[in-house]
Design a protein that fits this description.
3-stranded antiparallel beta sheet, 7 helices, 8 strands, rod-shaped
Length: 240
């Protein structure tokens, strides 16, 4: 069979290849199947995946500006856009990309305090994209997207932050309570002024309280003469 005498290299539809003959760059191979005679000539094909790829940078231990130790999980999505730079001009371009990401993370997070980092977590990706644009171009890749997946705090720091959060919520609750008490006191003061200035309104308010008391009473036992009846009469019968 002819296959015994030929060498076969397959470049998939999502790949590009580089053909080396006797260790020298010959040409770029597009997707397809390539056959070469088996002879003394050394032939090799290096291939790169041109699809969008994702790299995970997990558990990076980093110190913030205020010396808080934390771990960061970061991701980046990238594509190979220049196979010659990626495979021919650089060795293990993916490892180089990983190290560049690590250094960029440490450089930026080291300029922020823990509180600033938690508030500006989205700004980390903007910094990485901007600072690494030219560097990754030399690797033949393009960063499509990146971001912080998780920020993992040490147990003692997490406990302190929880205590701070509880204290803040209690303070907010106290402020709301004081506002409600102030509003209630102001309302009572306004009501008292109206009652003082209007006898009829005062009488209606007095009858309202008597009605509320009567709702709680099933029966009334009288003793000591007509004094209680006279008092009730004074409440319900307007004086002439």
């Amino acid at each position: 069979m002819v296959t015994v005498y030929v060498r076969v290299y397959v470049v998939e539809s999502y790949e590009k290849g580089i053909l080396y003959i006797d260790g020298k760059f010959e040409k770029i191979l597009e997707a397809g199947i390539y056959y070469f005679w088996k002879n003394a000539v050394a032939i090799s094909v290096a291939k790169a995946d041109l699809r969008q790829l994702q790299m995970e940078i997990s558990g990076q231990e980093i110190l913030t500006k205020d010396k808080a130790a934390l771990r960061v999980n970061f991701y980046t999505q990238y594509k190979v856009v220049d196979i010659l730079k990626a495979l021919n001009e650089n060795k293990e371009f993916e490892k180089q990309l990983y190290i560049l990401m690590q250094l960029a993370l440490r450089e930026f997070i080291g300029t922020l305090t823990l509180d600033e980092l938690l508030e500006k977590k989205d700004s980390v990706s903007d910094y990485v994209l901007t600072s690494l644009k030219e560097k990754v171009e030399r690797l033949g890749v393009e960063i499509k997207d990146c971001g912080v997946r998780d920020i993992i705090l040490p147990g003692e720091v997490k406990e302190i932050m929880n205590q701070v959060l509880v204290a803040q919520k209690k303070a907010q609750a106290n402020i709301i309570t004081r506002r409600e008490e102030t509003a209630s006191t102001r309302s009572l003061l306004n009501t008292a002024k109206l009652l003082e200035e209007n006898d009829m309104l005062f009488k209606l308010k007095e009858m309202e309280y008597v009605e509320k008391i009567a709702d709680k009473i099933n029966s009334i036992s009288l003793s000591g003469g007509n004094q209680l009846v006279d008092q009730l009469k004074d409440i319900f019968v307007p004086k002439k």
